[in-house]
Amino acid sequence: MTNDGNETARRSQAWFGASGRGGMVYRSWMRNQGFGPEVFDGRPVIGIATSASELAPCNAHLTRVAESVKRGVWQAGGLPLEFPTMATGETLMRPTAMLFRNLMAMEVEELIRANPLDGVVLLSGCDKTTPAMLMGAASVDLPALMVTGGPMLNGKFRGEDVGSGTHVWKFEEELKTGRMTQEECFFAEGCMARSNGHCMTMGTASTMACMAEALGMQLPGSATWPAVDARRFEIAQAAGRRIVEMVDEELRPSRILTREAFENAIRANAAIGGSTNAVIHLTALAGRLGVDLGLDDFDALVREVPTLLNLMPSGTYLMEDFCYAGGLPAVLAELVAGGLLHGGQITVTGRSVAENVAGAERIGTDVITGLDAPFQPAGSGTAVLRGNLCPDGAVLKQSAASPRLLTHRGPALVFDSPEAYHEVCDDPELDVDENTVLVIRNAGPKGYPGMPEVSNVPLPTKLLKAGVTDMLRICDGRMSGTGYGTVVLHVAPEAAVGGPLALVRDGDPIVLDVPGRSLRLDVDNAELERRRAEWAPPAPAHTSGYAWLYTQHVEQADRGADFGFLRGCRGHEVPRDSH
Fold first, then answer.
1. Which Pfam families match (predicted)?
2. How does pLDDT run across 187-213, given as a tens digit for each residue?
């Protein structure tokens, strides 16, 4: 089972090309699946890592996508081998899927390294599965290509388009104020989620699919095709063909995921009005590759980038509309033409970003706008805040916020957990008005644990009934990309490790100045030091198991909430043979 030429260098031949008992063991057990001896002739072995799971509804259809990838691999002369990974679906997992992103990344990394693979296609869907797979693959650095599962079809309810996630918050407000009945809500659920796929708003799943494409790790146009569109499977088949070529070219993530690629992704995220969660995930991914990427980069790089996409939650349309208006290539083409991207950066196609989008066409001007008349002006993307309340930073999504609240001073109303707020938010006697600043703490990486998407807590019912539609909220947790409102997120350091958020008390004046990129607690330093001396860390909630491991090793939000011991690339050296 030996081969000549480049094939002798293929990693999989350490298994399938081995002589003696070792090679016999590997080949014979593979043959119980019906593979003939010819598939061990030195052709590239391509892993298809799939997070398909009925416990992750966004990913449930990926088994069908994997079949298309396999066809492409066979067509190109490779051997496709599908294998399952865990699925971190935000829709069902408790306390939060983010708690398990790092675990999934570890699993993906070790499965790729431990098996006879020359390259891998990554199949993801829900928001944490995409960064987890990219992080794991980057740490191994074998040729890798991502295929995301695509968004659901547009939701339809009472003759209007409704967006997953975004309309959940809106329907909740209508239910609380009596404008909608519970029976109507039940009916709307099915209207909102009417096909396979992930959220069709610009939530984190759609955002991270676009980030994978903007980084150059996904084929052009593949981020936006709906999950049930035939072209989703067509592009998956093309990915299967392409990964075989990438193995021959030795085109690895480390060649694609450079500092320039991350700068492209950050600017693309601003242009599409993407989720603030991209900050966490891109920072973590950069750490796996040793790319110097800091929180302030997410502010500095987007100040000259306008929002070009009119999509919920910042706008009107949904992912299906985005796709048919030209998809992400049309946005990237606009940015390249404006000199806002590194057009020469290489991608999984083997071509540059500029070459990939050279023929991209923007259909109409309603969904994807141009740089000459953008949907929102330059500088309306994610803002990074600093100040005595967030010395290591915090973020705010300007495109989803209320302009009147971007400069605000108000008294704090503090809750030590999101659950504590939910217990009283319907109380008509709650001491709160539209100027109050809701502070929700102990929702950070260590404190919850896992940094859940709880920061955009619903407004107090008494204010909703009075017609108030937004108020300033501050939290050390995250917000779903489908959410909206004036919400300061990812406050670092978090309260649970003694960050300044732990020292805030009811009535303390809080001052937000987004144009000045400032968030501060208007309390003198002597008083804050007195409070700090009285503060004690919360007792650990976990003393064993994965949650204990997580709380012991997770880094803060400004560093991507990865495990410190997972930073850097560990490579793809073939493990020792025990046979």
1. ILV_EDD_C (PF24877), ILVD_EDD_N (PF00920)
2. 888 888 899 999 999 999 999 999 999
